[in-house]
Specification:
Layout (H helix, E strand, L loop, with lengths): L1 E5 L3 H13 L3 E5 L2 H8 L6 E4 L8 H11 L6 E5 L4 H9 L4 E4 L4 H15 L7 E4 L2 E4 L4 E4 L2 E3 L3 H12 L4 E3 H9 L7 H14 L8 E6 L3 E6 L2 H4 L1
């Protein structure tokens, strides 16, 4: 998953980054609210970790901005020295999903991050996932359309599954590249575009089949289910 962390303490940020990346996530760090919100305008994330006291704003103000401009589904965790009941009430009232008091304990951080991600993005049980005509087989990393197997390369499978699992979400180009390639340097934008184009063809992603993938200028892609009336 892709995580963004905001804290004015560089040591705390480094601790959070190391802990979350040891869990297999990609973590982007920010030392002030302005840089964080600037990135939020052009990038997408799966979870946010936010401190309360910041040099240019406050954590609750950041959370309220995210809820107004990004939406209510993105999980947000407060990590702060504030621990009074009124602080917890204000933090959760601003739109955060969970509240953790510093000093950061790695085990607790891992547990809270995992719980938030598990609730927001439920894991698929049994190794087989179906979306209409499309059937994903995790053990063989293959896809069937109406029972007919489609041959995909590893990254094509990862990208296809991520798009289906995040149906309706706007996903930035860097978000998709992080998920499919990891934090590999110099992944060309056209590599992502080529993979998207191949999936459109290989999986026959068009309104008649119930799904479309659309480019969103300046941001990335959105994969959507098409309602029956729109297919006619």
């Amino acid at each position: 998953m892709r995580i963004a962390a905001l804290d004015d303490d560089a040591l705390q940020l480094d601790l959070i980054k190391q802990a979350t990346e040891a869990m297999g996530h990609v973590c982007h760090t920010h030392l002030n609210g302005a840089d964080f919100l600037r990135e939020m305008r052009r990038e997408t994330f799966d979870l946010l970790i936010v401190d309360w006291h910041l040099p240019d704003t406050t954590g609750p103000e950041v959370v309220r901005w995210v809820r107004k401009n990004v939406g209510t589904q993105l999980p947000i965790l407060f990590v702060t020295h504030r621990q009074e009941e009124l602080d917890i009430v204000e933090g959760l009232g601003s739109g955060a999903d969970d509240f953790m008091v510093k000093p950061v304990r790695i085990g607790e951080l891992n547990a809270r991050v995992s719980a938030l991600l598990r609730r927001a993005y439920p894991a698929n049980v049994g190794g087989v996932v179906e979306f209409g005509r499309y059937r994903f087989l995790s053990e063989t990393r293959s896809i069937e359309i109406d029972g007919v197997p489609v041959e995909l390369k590893n990254r094509e499978y990862d990208l296809a599954l991520f798009l289906f699992q995040n149906m309706g979400r706007l996903l930035s180009r860097d978000h998709l590249k992080d998920i499919v390639w990891g934090q590999v340097a110099d992944v060309m934008s056209r590599s992502l575009d080529t993979h998207i184009s191949r999936l459109r063809t290989l999986l026959d992603l068009r309104p008649a089949n119930g799904f479309i993938v659309s480019a969103v200028y300046g941001v990335g892609y959105r994969f959507e289910a098409v309602e029956a009336q729109r297919r006619a």
